[in-house]
Amino acid sequence: MDFLSFCRNVNFVLLGFRFLCVKDWSRSLSNNLVEFSKTLTYYDDLSQIYQSVQSVPLHGDSLVNDIANDFEVLLKSKLKAVMDLVTEAEKVYMNYTYDEDLDVGYLNSKTVFSYEEQESTVLHFNGSTDPADETVKEMAEFNDVIELVQDKKFMKTPVNYNYSTVHVPTNVYDRSPNILNGAYWTRMLDDKFKENNERFKSLRWQYFCSSDGFFRVYPGLKWPRDNDKTGTDTYDCRVRSWYLQAATCPKHVLILLDTSGSMKGSRMVIARSTVKAILNTLDDDDYFNILRFSDTIEYVDPCFEGSMMQATEMNKRHLQELIDVNITARKGAYFKHAFDTAFNLLKFMEYKRQSRLCNKAILLITDGVPEHYDLVFKYHTKNFTDIQTRVFTFLIGREVDDDREVRWMACANKGYYSHISTLADVQENVQNYIKVMSRPMVIKRFHNKIWTSIYLDHMSHLDKNEGLQFMTSVAIPVFDTKNETFNDGNLLGVMGTDVPVASLQELVPVHKLGANGFAFLINHNGYVLMHPDYTPFRYPSAKQSVLNPYYNNIDLNDVTQTSRQFKDVRKRILTENNNFGSAVVELRRFYDNMRRMSKRNYHIFYRKVIGTDFSIGIALPATSMRKTPVAGFVPSLLDDCLNETNIEIAPWLYCSDLDPKLTGKERIRALLEIKKRNPENCKQKLLDYLTDDAQNLKNANLNQKWSQSTSFRKRCRKVNRKVVAEHFARQNITLLFIGTRNGLTRYMSVNDSFVPHFIQNNTDTLNADYYKRAVEAIEDKVDKKPRYTFTFSVDLDEEFNVNTSVVTASAPIYEKEYKLGYVPFVYAVVGLQMEYKKFEEIFMSSTQSVLSMKTPCDNDSYCSCKDQKGNCYLVDNHGYVVASKFPDYQVGLFFGDIPEENSVMNVLVDRGVFTRDEFTDYQALCERDSDDDADSSAPNLLNPIKAFLSGMLWTITEFLLFMSEFSFKSFWFSFGTSHSANALTKAECESLPYDTFGPMEKVAYSQACPSQIGEEDAKTYDPCHKTFKLYKVNYTRLPFHGEISGIFTDESRVNEGMERAPVIRSCTKPFTVTWVKDTNLLLIVTSRLCNDPSDLVDFELAHRKKNYSTQQMCQTRERREIYINYTSNCRFDRYDNETKTCGVAKQVISTKVLLISFLLSCIHIFVHCVL
Predict the structure, then answer these.
(1) Would the pLDDT of 719 be above 60?
(2) pLDDT bracket for residue 1116 (50, 70, 90)
């Protein structure tokens, strides 16, 4: 037979396959797979039992109202507790007299010891002659000691409910008069702390942050160290979001940075640090911009030229990076032009928004002002009669002598003047402007009640397995209400408490939302606090988890593959004053680690949470729009069946004091104990639903049926493990299971000595992939697509092994009614896991021959999937191979990633058999390009003289400054931070004597060498956007038959001795795709005799970074502003009757310092002349 005839014959046979053989194969495969799965799971019996439970409509508006009401009860109790503390604190301070000479002790959370720590420390160092060991021993013996006991409310953090403790930042002297007085009068809050703790059982941490920096927290605790390498404490409560938002109303801040020639060197280093510290005092509700000026004025960020940007983490971080790379000192400074531009910009923003701006301020950072600019300010303030914008001035540098003009600018414009000599002065001096901005609020006694965006607990930030994890806080400012200081506007601090997001999630009735339904919570900016697709942590490797730096500014649009309809819903939630709203929108979502996608219509219901800045929403698919009534509570039945070994319950809040960390049998035992001891703490309806499930499963008598045992008399009884093992071995299955809508899982496995890994990972039934995919099987009917029963899959996260891997089959138990407009309601999902060999056996036996009719291929060897001339695949509805002739390297792959079938998949996508959707991951992280250390050292190699002189200059400078101040700490602080501005290399950081550093030096090191702290092999990641594509079958295009052009290597003439080498000939590769009915599987048969030589098509499943041009990035950041609601609950645009000082007194400069300044100037001139 010549090649052409052979090829035609092959095509003829395959065409026969398409219409006759393959169709019959898929029918046989469907019958065998479905029958096998139904028989072993007793699917029909379970369906029959549940049909007696009739569902009723679920009203989404009522459900979202119930959730919002529960949220309001919880959050109002938190607000009440904080307000009571504020009232108590203001009352205590009103009767307190400041004592400059006060010398008292207080419980310092950094130095406090527990009794166990004291005893073990003293025993450990007993007998040691090392002076350092003796010092540690003395600290343990003489420091304050309190009892610290692990508490489950704080995730087992050791605490003491009798006392609060005080934390003082590293850069604040903990024995200064302000700290001692503050610690002394706030100790009187302990009684109110305890009272609140008794009244409001849901309270966690209660705390007060003083404007002087100390932080009193209840219950008392020992403060955690920042990390193992540095042990440095960098916590300062005054830069936490809850403090910043409560301490002032929303601010509009313009920063003017002097970049004239006199700002070179250390002054620019300090100026940059000052700008960054100011940015760290801004929060989500603030707006800002930075202008640099010398002989010209420029916006540091070109994206917001002529406007202001919201103080999001992305904007602040971007500006901090620009400050490092885009700022150089040159030429002279034109102050008039700078101030005119700043005032005019603020006026333009008011005109643009058609409203007055909140708390306007201009912050000038300079090393001196050469003349008096009173005409500028007279013009913009109507001769100082209408001051609406404060001016704050920061004078930079040690050797600055004349500060009169800089001070006058601040005092004349209701601002504050600060002199920053060294980097160590930055943090405290920047805090001065926050105190001033709070004055009108204090004078008018406006207690600004704020709710923060989501943030990570400080302890969880240090160790993601500790602490209360993600939370929001409610905070209220505390005022000095004494009559004699009324016009001073003295802010004492901020009082607050935490609300763990987990405590809000526990209030959501997950069982009512159903599979694929979800709840979301956003704040007034549209930022997410709660959403199932919110993923602040990413895991680029098994050893590394990375927190997205923008995690507290993730927008609702960023977690949802939104349609225009959903964007409109989001806008309505944020801008409309209506308390309630609803809509029907189409949403695309991904799951299974972003490898599968779904597209369905959701009913969205949303409502404001009264008394807060939050809005709650629920999204319900069609299958969640019904519910079942409760049959009744039978305690003994629930107790009996929960005590069985093969029962698990979901990690839901069945009872209020059920420890969320408990799993497995410990969780069940704890639930039963609480139900018995404190039934009032349990959610009776949820337990009723759980009992109904237990009753239905009892009626099904699953233990007997699944084990194929005939010896059962009672239905809740342990099974005969030997009988089970024999039955499972005969059928080649490893697991049978059922998960219910109400969180109950019953299973049977080969080995009862441990809970199967699959069950452990899927106790949260409604969020389990097997459950959601099974529900999706009948959801498709809503979209006019065929409904099927069984969903088959392999674990894509595990490496496939033909001997050990399993295939999971799952099927929904649902209400079977076929009325017009009927929406299916799912009661449970039943399933099994079979050995892959069993699945392959069914696959191959069902595709060996034609069962029902004669075809041209009856007697041909090509009528079997085992034949070498063809390839057969079972592919799931998302394009992943579940079975093939070569499973070792094909099962689990995307069908298009099999090289010989790449062109076939391309045709299936082009012809619509598979639909393709592009997704964008807006919460992605991208690995940062590694810095080239050689870059920083190259200039030194090119100019060794310059490197030597620069080194000498630095050494002499630091030595002289050291001699002038007699401050070793200041020396090292200046050392570390001045180097940080010049990007120390890894080698330079490693050469520093870190082990000899004190606390302040370690802070400097952490700033100079941030990349050196932590795991040495950890990579660095930055937020980015990644795009990828996902696929899903379109059943309406099946069956499908096609062919592609290819080539064939003809060796027939070589074998016959007629040719010396094989001949490459053209051919066509036929293929056919059919649906294996009642399953999610496709049977794909292709020819192996013809291959496509063209390049492989990339189906773009891999996540790729989305690159934006500068213009696109600007447009993205500017577009974010459109949706923000600018209204604020407080506005102060006039600053009358303020009497408090506008700046610190100028220090007298010693002759020694003047001499040193002269010598430094000479050295600088010499170096520049030489170089």
Answers:
(1) no
(2) confident
Residue 612 tokens, joined: 């807060």
Higher-pLDDT residue of 605 and 1171 is 605
* Distance of alpha carbon 726 from alpha carbon 1148, whole angstroms: 94
Residues 492, 210 contacting (CB under 8 angstroms)? yes
Listed residue (959, 1007, 1135) closest to 489, CA to CA: 1135
- CA angle, 802 then 808 then 811, to 5°: 155
Q: How far apart are CA 418 and CA 405, in angstroms?
A: 12
Q: At what angle do helices 60-94 and 190-199 cross, to 10 degrees?
A: 160
Structure tokens at 909: 């996508």
Strand order in the sheet with 1021-1033: 914-927, 1021-1033, 1104-1105
Instruction: Fill in the amino acid letter for 150.
Output: Q
pLDDT, tens only, 266-324: 888 888 999 999 999 999 889 999 999 888 888 999 889 988 999 999 999 999 888 88
| Buried-exposed string 420-450: b where 16+ CB fall within 10 A, e elsewhere | bbbbbbbbbbbbbbbbbbbbbbbbeebbbbb
Looking at residue 4, its pLDDT comes to: 35
Q: Is the pLDDT of residue 499 over 60?
A: yes
| Burial status of residue 636 (CB atoms within 10 A of its CB: 0-12, 13-18, 19 or more) | exposed
- Cβ contact 34:790 at 8 Å: yes
How many whole angstroms separate alpha carbon 923 and alpha carbon 555? 10
Distance CA 508, CA 84 (A): 28
Neighbours of 925 (CB within 10 A): 22
Confidence of residue 79 (pLDDT cuts 50, 70, 90): very high
Across the range 623-638, mean pLDDT stands at 74
Residues near 1110 by beta carbon (within 8 Å), at least 6 away in sequence: 302
Structure tokens at 137: 């021993």
Cα 663 to Cα 233: distance, rounded to the nearest angstrom: 34
Q: Which tokens go with 522?
A: 């956003």
Cα 1133–chain centre separation:
37
Q: Which residue has the tokens 């800045």?
A: 613
Q: What is d(CA 441, CA 85) in angstroms, rounded to the nearest whole number?
A: 18
Give every strand in the sheet of 1040-1050, ordered side by side: 881-884, 870-875, 1082-1087, 1063-1075, 1040-1050
Residue with tokens 């019958």: 31
Q: Residue 469 in contact with residue 661, Cβ under 8 Å?
A: no
**C-beta of residue 496 within 8 angstroms of C-beta of residue 473:** yes
Of the listed ranges 150-159, 220-229, 809-818, the least confidently predicted one is 220-229
| Upper half-sphere CA count for residue 189 (Cβ side, 13 Å) | 33
Specify the DSSP class assigned to residue 883. E
What pLDDT score was predicted for residue 523?
92
Question: Could you tell me if 504 and 616 are in contact, meaning their C-beta atoms sit under 8 angstroms apart?
Answer: no
Q: Residue 834: count other Cβ atoms within 10 Å of its Cβ.
A: 25
Q: ∠578-579-581 over CA atoms, to 5°?
A: 75
Q: Supply angle C-alpha 814, 816, 822, rounded to 5.
A: 100
Q: For residue 95, with 0-12 CB atoms within 10 Å meaning exposed, 13-18 middle and 19 or more buried, which class applies? A: exposed
Q: Could you give the CA distance from residue 912 to residue 689 in angstroms, rounded to a whole number?
A: 43
Q: What is the pLDDT of residue 1154?
A: 42
Tell me which residue of 222, 210, 159, 205 sits closest to 185, measured CA to CA. Answer: 210
Q: How many helices (H) and strands (E) does the chain have?
A: 38, 41
The SS3 assignment for 252 reads: strand
Residue 859's pLDDT band (boundaries 50, 70, 90)?
very low
Residue for token pair 């202008």: 291
pTM for the whole thing? 0.84
Peptide bond into 169 cis (omega under 30): no
Helices (H), 463-575: 501-505, 510-513, 564-575
> What pLDDT score was predicted for residue 370?
80
Two tokens at 360?
Answer: 């306007």
Q: CA 68, CA 73: separation in Å to the nearest integer?
A: 9
